[in-house]
Amino acid sequence: MNTEDDKLPHDEQLSSLYNRAKHDIPSEQIDEAILSAAKRDTSTYSLPYNPFSNNWRIPASLAAVLVLSFGIVTLMENDLSPVNGVTPHVIVEDALIQKPSSIAKEQASLAKARSKMATPPLHKPATTEPAISTDAATSKGLFTSKAKETKRNEKLVSKKKQASQRTKPEMADTLSLSAAMPISTVGITTGTDEQAGLPYWQYKDEGLSIRFIQRLPDQTRGYFIGRGFSAEHAELIAQSCVFQTIFKNISDKNTPSEIIYNMQNWLVHHNGKTGEMKTREKWSTQWQQLNIATPAKLAFEWGLLPTTQDYQAGDYNWGMAIFDLPLASSFTLQLNWQQFGEQRNVTIPNMQCAADIHADPESP
Amino acid sequence: MKPFLRHSLWIFFACQTSLLMAEQTIFPAVAKPFIAYDFKVKDIDGTQYRLSDYRGKVVVLNFWATWCPPCREEMPSMNQAHKKLRKDNVIILAINVGEDENTIFEFTGNYPVDFPLLMDQDGKVIKSYPVMGLPTTYIINPEGIVTHRTVGGRPWDDSKLLNELRRMQKTPAK
């Protein structure tokens, strides 16, 4: 609110001038003159560079969307969530590398867990196994004799004892390995495969997922007898520590990366010795000498995980991996492959071959 | 309001671009395209099939076996794809490795299939292709050149895969 004190010295003069004007507002000519003068001035005027102007908003918002989308997708892909509903047991790398005293503890707890896992729910046969193999096994009388069953149970008890005695040398294998080379065990999980009902060991990172699932010798016998092998020859395979393997290239579709591996470069550490896996090529020589029929040989060859393979994003194989070790033995597996332009290595400790446990047919 | 619309358009464009990039890897291309080995084999009914009879069409050549879980898993979707692609000059041929008529016939009881199930009992055909594991599927272009390969099962009736095969049939070879 204006008071008398607020009045400026020329206010009265201005008021009289306004009073003399014909209209309350300026004439149109004056308005146009002012507007055209203003337009002339602004057309020749350029703003100085302002880093906070609107120009950065589009690229910044685009970049933010892309980074966020990529981040979310990568996180989803790398999520080490339980596989097939099985809660995995995760082995922490630090526990094996940095704290030698905790290695023994970890190994002991794993051995304990393993001894529990070595007695899987046998009354639930693997659903991944084709029904044919079980039928074939049954037709060959593999599940019939009770006397045989008792013998096998006795065998199993003694083999379990042997397996537990072997735990100590296997611990030494892992310890000596960890001393000799950096062991990466991040991403390794163990548990019970939901479909097979048998223990598995899995490695998973942003580009690869590989799962080894125990196969019972009886499953292997039944499978190969059903594919034309004699009981004697099927036994050779069944006694060689067989795992069902699922190998997947899980690299992101937007940043796909090929996987190349050669199983001949993988190493198996058992009882202080280092060996290789028994590949289809090694078996092929043996089958040639034993005059195995072609269909059986083909089923064997294509049933195994390829010795070498290249997988593009989304590619995968299922196949048996044969370690050529006594049943129920523990071992450490060193894997390597090429992906993302580098050689990658991982060591899976404390893997265990299935014992020769006899599986009862599921009661109706 | 205007800047908001402009930004939204840019974001939409970026999303579309990334989706298109993702679609490019539906079928991984083979490192070196090669001439498809021309085989002559019988199906379970004794009908003879020759690959070169399908020149001018895209051929999806699948190697499989009844005992292979991913092979079994992809078979129903492959059959759906066969039904949907019949009019588009895209042919599906599945070559069984090492098994006999009875085994395959028994399999079709559980997995009805309308496309030809060919037999490679002595493994001669599979040895002529660089197959390492089952299932492996090759895409052969109308000129008889193997251009793409997938290892492991795929959802063959997925619309993206079907459209990609249709596109391959329409696109002239370079």
Q: How many domains of chain A?
A: 2
H/E series of chain A, N to C? HHHEHHHHEEEHHEEEEHHEEEE
Mean pLDDT of chain B: 89
Order of helices and strands of chain B: HEEEEHEHEHEEH
Apparent shape of chain A: rod-shaped
- What structural class do you assign from the helix and strand content of chain A? alpha+beta
Largest sheet of chain A: 6 strands, antiparallel
Question: Based on DSSP secondary structure assignment, what is the total number of beta strands of chain A?
Answer: 12
**Pairing-aware structural class of the strands and helices of chain B?**
alpha/beta
How widely separated are the two ends of chain A? Answer: 99 Å
Show unreliable segments of chain B.
18-24
Rounded average pLDDT of chain A: 73
The largest sheet of chain B, given as strand count, sense and whether it forms a barrel, is: 6 strands, mixed
Beta-strand proportion of chain B = 25-35%
Considering DSSP H and I runs of 4 or more, what fraction of the residues of chain B is helical? 25-40%
End-to-end distance of chain B, in Å? 47 Å
Instruction: Give the helix tally of chain A.
Output: 11
Radius of gyration of chain B, in angstroms, nearest whole number: 19 Å
Feature tags:
heterodimer, A: 364 residues, alpha+beta, 2 domains, 6-stranded antiparallel β-sheet, 4-stranded antiparallel β-sheet, 20% strand, B: 6-stranded mixed β-sheet, two-stranded antiparallel ribbon, globular
